[in-house]
Every structure is written in C-alpha cells, then in structure tokens.
Specification:
The protein folds into 3 domains: 81 residues, Peptidase S8 propeptide/proteinase inhibitor I9 (Alpha-Beta Plaits), CATH 3.30.70.80; 356 residues, Peptidase S8/S53 domain (Rossmann fold, 3-Layer(aba) Sandwich), CATH 3.40.50.200; 138 residues, Glucose Oxidase, domain 1 (3-Layer(bba) Sandwich), CATH 3.50.30. The longest helix is centred in the first third of the chain and has 19 residues. The protein has a 7-stranded parallel β-sheet with strand order 7-10-6-13-15-16-26, with helices on both faces. 26% of the residues lie in helices and 20% in strands. The chain is an alpha/beta fold and 696 residues long. The protein is globular. A hairpin with a 3-residue loop joins strand 2 and strand 3.
Length: 696
C-alpha cells in the first residue's frame, strides 16, 4: 500500500509557520533624543541634593509617558540640571511625538551628529612684528588675555603640551589648564559599546589640541612641522586660562560630535564661569530650538559668555554656512601671507608652483615616470573614482615607482597621498578641481607631494596625454613669508546667505584658517591616517575650525580689556573694525581670484588692534534676541520657556532688518526701505562724525 501523500500536512505546517511570522510581535526601534524644556528658574548655585531633585523631576516627567519612574530612569542618559533645562533619552518615535505635544516642552530633536569643522598668523594680524610686540598692540593693552578663561568644545587637548604651561614660568600646565571634562553619553547612544579608553578628556585626534592652543596657547619657541614654518607658536590670548570640554569622538557615519553631549558641555561650561567659548563644530543649518549649539550658545550669552563658532567647510557652494544664530559669532576661513612652495617640473621643462609639507624628498635630482591616476585604475574601479585616488581604486602594477597625478575632491587630500604610497607611488601631484580654484594647501603628506591649482593641474593632465613617456620631478618644500595676495578666502569656507534667517548676514567675520601651525597630539600621525606612524608636536591644519579659535583668542583679549562689555558689543567691535582689503590694498578675493563678497567674509577680515577701539558699538540685549525669535514665528510660550523671562511679543512685530546687528542685510528689496540702528559710544570723543557709503 502506498503511503499517504503529505500535501495536506505540509499545507497546514506552512500555514502555521506563516501565521507565526505574521503575528510575531514587532519592536519599535529606539533612537536617542534631546528633550529641551527651556531655562531653569532656580538659582545657579544649588546643592547636590537640589540638583538630584531636578533629575528626579525629569524622571517623573518622562515616567508619565513611559509608564514608570524606573523605565524613565533607564531611558534618560543626560539630565541637564544647572542652566539648561532638559534631558536626553532613548525613545521610540511615537513616544517622542507624544512628548513633543506637552506644553512644558520647547522642542524635542534627534541626538544627531555634527562635524569638526600658529607660528605666523598673529604676526600677519599685526599683534607682533618679527617676534616683537609693538606698544600699540592689543597684546600689550590687554595683558595677553590675563584674567580671562577660554573654554573649548572639541576633542579636548593633550595635557603635556608646553602650550598649556603658565605664561612666563616653568609651573606645571595645571596653572594654565584649569579644567578638562568629557561628555560621551550621546556618542554612546548611537555607537557601539564603549570601552574604558573613552572615559577620558585626553585628545587622541589632535583637533582639540590644535584649536585650544590657537585660541590661548602659551609662547613656545622652535615650533615647526618637520622643520617647516619654524618660529614661536602662540595663541591669541596667551596669558588666558583654558578649560577643555571633550564632546567629539571617533566618527560615526561621518559625524564626531553629538547634540546631547554638546548641550551637556554648554550647561557645565556656563556653570564653570568661562568668559569665552570656542566651538569649532557644526552641522546643517536648522531651526534654533532644534540646534544644541544655538540653544547652548543662547544660554551662554545670557550669562555674558561670548560664543564663537566655525562657519563650516562646505564651500564654495552658496547657502552652506552653519551656526547662524545672531547670538553666535560665526567665522569663515582665509589665508595668511605664509606658504610652503614645492615646485613641480615636467619633462617638457614647464614648472608649476605648488605647496606641501612633505617631510621626505624624491631621491636624486632626476625625472620620474608620471602617470594619471585615471590610467592607473584597478580593474574593478571606475575612472572617476581612480582619478580621485580613493582606497582600492589603484592598480599597484601600474603605479609602482612612478609619480601619480590625483584630482582633489571627495576623500581627504592626505588620504590620496596614503593611497598613492600604498599603491607603490614614489610621489604625488595633487591637482585642484575647478571649484577649489587657486586654494592650495600645505599638508604633511606621507610621500613627496605637491598640491597645485586648477589651471596648472589641467596643464599637467594635458602633458600626460600628449606624450608616450611623461615624466616629472617634485622639489622639496621651502618656507616663504610675505606672499601676496593675502588674505584670500578659502574655497572650503562655507558661504551665505543664511538659509534660516536671510535677514542676518552669516558668516560674521573671517580669520586665518589655512595651513595654521599649532599644538597637536602624539596619539596620531599628522595626517590622521591609519598607516601614518610619524609623530609631531605641532601640525599644520586647515579649516574654519582653525579660524574660529583665532576670533576666540581675540575675544579673550577684549574681555580682559573691557570685562563689562556684552557679547554683542564685543562682536560689534570685531565686525565694525574689520577690513575688506588684502596686503596689496586690493579687495579681498575668493579662491578663484575673483572679488569675494560679504557672503564669504561677513564684515571682512579681522583687525584685532583696531577692535580694541571701535568708537561705536551696536549692542543687543536679551530682549532684542527674544524679539528676533518672535519675528521669526516662535510663540510667546516657547520664548518664555527658552529665556525664563516674562515676555510678550511686540505689536506689530519688529522687522528682522531692524535687529540692532553690526551688519545690514535686505534679502528682497522692492522699492525703498528704512532700516534703523542704535549705536553706543564706547570711545573717548564726545561727538562722532557720521559718513555713509551706501551700496549702489
């Protein structure tokens, strides 16, 4: 007898399995959020018991949504207890949406990531001349920033640096560095589990050491990068004390710094009593109440702290500037009058002036075979990816022993050098793309290299394609001072207009941010690349991250000179005394050597010595900022919670063009418009003569 066919049994089994799959319980994905409740109404100097009660109140508030105090306690990983009221917690999207509806909540936003955005620059800015401080220098007048505390939100700093020693003596660095804290719970909420090495404020990346020493580093003689740029390194306020707040960590999906950590650092820095906060990080522009840097900066400014932020490195595209709140000082990046020329000579004896900080030179004064990275592509790589010299795109059999010509873009400039070396190249010519124009940067490449501009790069590639046996030689770099034109705007420096409030010009100011030499960490090589085993005490780095601490240092000097000036008055002094001319007395140019605009440099290039005597300042009160928010559509309840001030929106609403800002921006001018400003005399004359130079 044949056995029964299993059709019915198999069908029933299949039905049961599919039913199990269909009815399997689903679990909502939790994400980390910042729940912002505004300002605290309590006095700042609370006992530990009272601070704990604030945290308990946060548990109770969240527990009312999650069902229990215990679940809320597990969910919350930050409780902001001192000046900023709120907490950070892991929540389901639906839970976050319900919390956002509560009348006590100003805003709730994702714990998103943000990015980290010298021996010569202070001489270029006129604070010294050939190592001598002139009598009229702001350094002399402001006692080098004495009695000022500058805080830095970054990757913190490497504590053993001489830059962090006390000014003028051998006392240990603790006299200079008065505090170092770390904040990593927001980072931990979006990354893999952390080990104990993350529970430290020490800088293992180099960025924080560089920015902090630029703002307030001590005088250190013999500073150089592989012998290039040798001189005395120093910060803008070399006698100031410093406090470091580590909020940035190894990248997660391209971001190093997270909203929850940034807000926690602001809350503590305000309590610590810093005078200036330097913030070289940022992200895409967003609504003010969804931006931890804008929120933290407002609370800091409310307590008299000047907050200086980088504009971002997303240029030269328009509308890319970040950190756009009017209570922040937003800084673009420009060049100084020092370069490290490295000449490229082709087989047809044409010479091109590039730049580099390569420590090694090509052996022998002879030509080497030259190949375009596009012609050296690996079998599985596209021509465009190979031309950019990305990892895994180059064929070592084609590259070995040759100079490789790579195109700038996408991956880091120093990464291209490392990929060239790994593929067997003896040298690299890095050519700009059209967007980067004439902006060539001196990087500490791992092999002999020279970075050349777009026009010269096009000629190099044309030469390669014109001959069967292209050859080239790269000369070792040298140090050259007094170069012209300087400054000109860096191509990477993010530009306006301000996409959130076009009536406010951003950036506010520009400062040196290209090839800036300052202290560095020994935990990484100067390129921060995996295979770079070299170690340096000082490094050359470029970015608005480098220009930001220049302004922070200058703010420290002004704080020492005028301790009772408001943050807005200090900003006004810096902006209204800026220059829009270079060292050839010509208008400041962009990286393509066309005339730059205020959307690139704001009020202009900083002029520190003039900033100490602005004559008139455009001051702003807390209420002015609240009126600004009201005119931007925020309601009275939100604004009162934000500021912890009784507030009513003026009727009619104040025009945004009439905010008493040191610059005037009219986004859409139709016909005539009356714009008002109020100035305060902070100079010695009793009367001021007014001259108008209106735009045509």
């Amino acid at each position: 007898m044949r056995p029964p066919r299993p059709t019915i049994a198999l069908y029933l089994l299949s039905f049961l399995l599919s039913s199990l799959v269909l009815h399997r319980p689903t679990f909502a994905i939790k994400k980390s959020y910042v729940v912002y409740l505004g300002s605290h109404s309590h006095p700042p100097n609370l006992s530990e018991l009272e601070l704990n009660q604030v945290t308990e109140n946060h548990y109770e508030f969240l527990g009312s949504f999650l069902g229990s105090h215990e679940v809320a306690k597990e969910s919350i990983f930050y409780s902001y207890t001192r000046h900023i009221n709120g907490f950070a917690a892991t929540l389901e999207e639906e839970e976050a949406a319900q919390i956002a509806k509560h009348p006590k909540v100003v805003s709730i936003f994702l714990n998103q990531g943000r990015k980290l955005h010298t021996t010569r620059s202070w001489d270029f800015l006129g604070l010294e001349h050939d190592g001598v401080t002139p009598p009229n220098s702001i350094w002399n007048k402001a006692r080098y920033g004495e009695d000022t505390i500058i805080g830095n939100l970054d990757t913190d700093q490497r504590s053993q640096r001489e830059s962090c020693n006390s000014f003028g003596d051998k006392i240990l660095h603790e006299r200079k560095l008065i505090g170092a804290r770390y904040f990593n719970k927001g980072f931990a909420a979006v990354s893999a589990p952390l080990n104990s090495s993350f529970d430290s404020p020490r800088d293992n990346e180099g960025h924080g050491s560089h920015t902090l020493s630029t703002a307030a580093g001590n005088f250190v003689t013999g500073a150089s990068v592989f012998g290039f740029g040798n001189g005395t390194a120093k910060g803008g306020s070399p006698k100031a004390r410093v406090a470091a707040y580590k909020v940035c960590w190894p990248p997660v999906n391209g971001s190093e710094c997270f909203e929850a950590d940034i807000l926690a650092a602001f809350d503590i820095a305000i309590h610590d009593g810093v005078d200036v906060l330097s913030v070289s990080l940022g992200g895409d522009p967003t609504a003010f109440f969804n931006d931890s840097t804008a929120i933290g900066a407002f609370h800091a400014v409310k307590h008299g702290i000047v907050v200086v932020c980088s504009a971002g490195n997303s240029g030269p595209d328009e509308g890319t500037v970040s950190n756009i709140a009017p209570w922040q000082i937003t800084v673009g990046a420009s060049t100084i009058d020092r370069e490290f020329p490295s000449y490229v000579t082709l087989g047809n004896w044409k010479h091109f002036r590039g730049q580099s900080l390569s420590a090694v030179a090509l052996p022998g004064k002879r030509f080497y075979r030259l190949i375009s990275a596009a012609a050296a592509k690996a079998a599985n790589a596209s021509v465009q990816e190979a031309l950019l010299c990305k990892a895994g795109t180059l064929d070592p059999r084609k590259v070995k022993g040759k100079i490789l010509a790579c195109l700038r873009g996408d991956n880091a400039r120093v990464d291209k050098g490392e990929q060239a070396l790994l593929a067997g190249a003896v040298g690299m010519i890095l050519a700009n793309n059209e967007l980067n124009g004439n902006e060539i940067i001196s990087d500490p490449h791992v092999l002999p290299a020279s970075h050349i501009n777009f026009t010269d790069g096009a000629l190099v590639f044309a030469y390669i394609n014109s001959t069967k046996s292209p050859r080239a030689y790269i000369k070792r770099p040298t140090t050259q001072l007094g170069t012209k034109p300087a400054p000109f705007m860096a191509a990477f420096s993010s530009k306006g207009p301000n996409t959130i409030t076009p009536d406010i010009l951003k950036p506010d100011i520009t400062a040196p941010g290209v090839s800036i030499i300052a202290a560095y960490t020994e935990a990484q090589g100067p390129t921060n690349q995996m295979f770079d085993q070299r170690r340096v005490l000082f490094n050359s780095v470029s970015g608005t991250s480098m220009s930001c601490p220049h302004i922070s240092g200058i703010c420290g000097l002004l704080k020492t000179l005028y301790p009772h000036w408001s943050p807005a008055a200090i900003k006004s002094a810096i902006m209204t005394t800026a220059t829009t001319q270079d060292n050839s007395r010509e208008p400041v140019l962009n990286a393509s050597f066309y005339r730059a605009t205020p959307f690139s440099y704001g009020a202009g290039h900083v002029n520190p010595n003039c900033a100490m005597d602005p004559g008139l300042v455009y001051d702003l009160s807390l209420n002015d900022y609240l009126n600004f928010l009201c005119s931007n559509g925020y309601n009275e309840t939100q604004i009162e919670m934000f500021s912890e001030e009784t507030y009513k929106c003026p009727k009619p609403a104040i025009s945004l063009t009439n905010l008493n800002y040191p610059s005037i921006t009219v986004p859409k001018l139709n016909g005539s418009l009356v714009v008002t400003r109020t100035v305060k005399n902070v100079g010695t004359p009793d009367s001021i003569q007014v001259e108008r130079n209106l735009p045509k």
